[in-house]
Write a structure and sequence with these properties.
Structural class of chain B: alpha/beta
Number of domains of chain B: 2
CATH superfamily of chain A: Beta-grasp domain
Strand content of chain B: 25-35%
Number of strands of chain B: 19
Distance between the termini of chain B: 46 Å
Strand order of the largest sheet of chain A: 2-1-5-3-4
Helix content of chain A: 10-25%
Oligomer: heterodimer
CATH superfamily of the largest domain in chain B: FAD/NAD(P)-binding domain
Helix content of chain B: 10-25%
Number of strands of chain A: 5
CATH architecture of chain A: Roll
Largest sheet of chain B: 7 strands, mixed
CATH topology of the largest domain in chain B: FAD/NAD(P)-binding domain
CATH architecture of the largest domain in chain B: 3-Layer(bba) Sandwich
CATH class of chain A: Alpha Beta
Largest sheet of chain A: 5 strands, mixed
Structural class of chain A: alpha+beta
Largest interface: A-B, 25 and 31 residues
Chain lengths: ~130, ~350
């Protein structure tokens, strides 16, 4: 595995000037059995990296964040779909390789943790690969 | 399993043609050690060419930015003087140890029936072998090889069958076009009306749909029905949630590839969470003569970086030399100054 370039990261990294903006937010991963794990995500990192740092199960992330494997598939809680944003064209294409894709499906390597996502909840599918 | 006529004798068998395996060819070659390289993929590069051929890599020493494909191409050029033999589309199935701790010897057999006799084995298998992703359909395993296929080996297996293909990539589209003429019926199932495939394949498929020769359905296959491995029907769940049973005795799911450790787990090596523990002097495994380099190995402080794999291959080669040329003293030399090494590289 190599360190990858994160396409969206450059514009989001530390893009909270003026102070006061939180550098960490709480995000919750609910696994396919319904167990919830709330962890701290660093603003500017991706949701996939947050999951990996916190040993969240059911996130394989085989390609290391290159949007090239569809093994970090999550379902974004309905209340958060708007704030989390829509999948890009490349991400939509890659979601073709995920299972049981729903309208709220995202690849979490393509979601950048931002202050307005404090409280974000996503559910992981039982099978990634 | 097909049988080949004779076993191939070689110094080293390298399992995996990713960057770590490729650079090991170089380091072994400088020490006059010949290698055969086996990979399940159809080309060299491993994850670099399979997962991110176009993505820039920024942490290869001396190369400020290089794509996965460029790195692979450069490595292939760098090892050319050593003339490695590649065996693509093959997976090492069994590894038998025939020698002793002082004089190791191995017999390696691939799933294509190729047999190697090697003095040393170097496992550079990365995250394991790339294998087709299997969709989470209950009992799908019991139909695999009889009604469910992840690749087409013989077109005849699909003649006069009710074929259902799932997916929206090039594999799904290519096989829709190729199997439609021989199949009794062909249904293409995909989650959306958009495809990440060659535009001419997409338009050819759409023409077939218009002509009534291919049925295109939005949704997914959630269940398969049949007995004894012979499928008769599949449950199609539409994007609207409606379920329908459709005739299907050949199902081909195309969800890309995933990495599985595969047969490595059965070679009798110590494993630690699917990784192979090695020492950090020789990068040798628990079994003398079997080395592991790159992402597949683990040791205190291990970093899964390509540059680590390069370093590990160089050190493993030193110990491999002692197994292969026990009578020869190894003289450490630099490529900048050694005419001997330069001769091997074809530059002197």
């Amino acid at each position: 595995m190599v360190k990858m370039s994160y396409d969206n990261m450059a514009v989001c990294y530390g893009a909270e000037p003026g102070g006061g903006a939180p550098t960490k937010v709480k995000v919750t991963f609910v696994d396919s059995h319904g167990q919830a794990r709330t962890v701290e995500g660093e603003v500017g990192s991706t949701l996939m990296e947050t999951a990996r740092r916190n040993d969240i199960p059911e996130i394989a992330a085989e390609c290391g964040g290159a949007c090239a494997c569809a093994t970090c598939h999550v379902y974004v809680d309905e209340k958060w779909t708007e704030k989390a944003g829509k999948a890009s064209q490349m991400e939509e294409d890659m979601l073709d390789f995920a299972f049981d894709v729903k309208p709220n499906s995202r690849l979490c390597c393509q979601i950048t943790v931002r202050p307005e996502l404090d409280g974000l909840t996503v559910t992981t599918p039982a099978q990634q690969g | 399993m097909p049988q080949t006529s004779a076993a191939i004798d070689t110094d080293v068998v390298i399992v995996g043609a990713g960057p770590a395996g490729l650079f090991a060819v170089f380091e072994l070659g400088l020490l006059d050690i010949k290698a055969h390289v086996i990979d399940i993929l159809p080309r060299a590069g491993g994850q670099c060419s399979e997962l991110y051929p176009e993505k820039p890599i920024y942490d290869i020493p001396g190369l400020p930015v290089v794509t996965g494909q460029e790195l692979t191409d450069n490595l292939m050029k760098q090892i050319e003087p050593f003339g490695p033999t590649f065996h693509f589309n093959e997976m090492v199935q069994t590894l038998e140890s025939l020698g002793t701790a002082e004089t190791p010897a191995f017999r390696i057999t691939t799933d294509a029936g190729t047999v190697f006799n090697a003095k040393v084995v170097l496992v550079a298998a990365g995250g394991g072998s790339f294998q087709p992703k299997k969709p989470p359909i209950p009992n799908i395993e019991s139909y695999e090889g009889k009604s469910v296929f992840y690749a087409v080996r013989r077109m005849e297996d699909f003649r006069d069958r009710d074929v259902v293909i799932v997916g929206g990539g090039d594999s799904a589209l290519d096989w829709t076009l190729n199997l439609q003429p021989v199949a009794k019926s062909l249904t293409l199932v995909h989650r959306r009306d958009a495809f990440r495939a060659a535009p001419h394949s997409v338009s050819a498929m759409q023409e077939l749909v218009k002509a009534g020769k291919v049925s295109f359905r939005l949704g997914q296959i959630t269940e398969v029905h049949g007995a004894g491995g012979d499928m008769s029907h599949a449950t199609l769940k539409g994007n609207d949630g409606a379920e329908e049973k459709i005739a299907c005795d050949r199902l081909m799911p195309f969800f890309g590839l995933t990495m599985k450790l595969g047969p490595v787990a059965e070679w009798g090596l110590n494993l630690n969470e699917n990784l192979i523990p090695v020492d950090t002097e020789k990068f040798e495994t628990s079994h003398p003569g079997i080395f592991a380099v790159g992402d597949i190995n683990v040791y205190p402080g291990k970093l899964k970086l390509i540059l680590s794999g390069f370093h590990e291959g160089a050190l493993a080669a030193q110990k491999a030399h002692r197994y292969i040329y026990p009578e020869k003293k190894l003289l450490f030399q630099y490529t900048t100054s050694s005419t001997n090494l330069q001769k091997k590289l074809g530059v002197s």
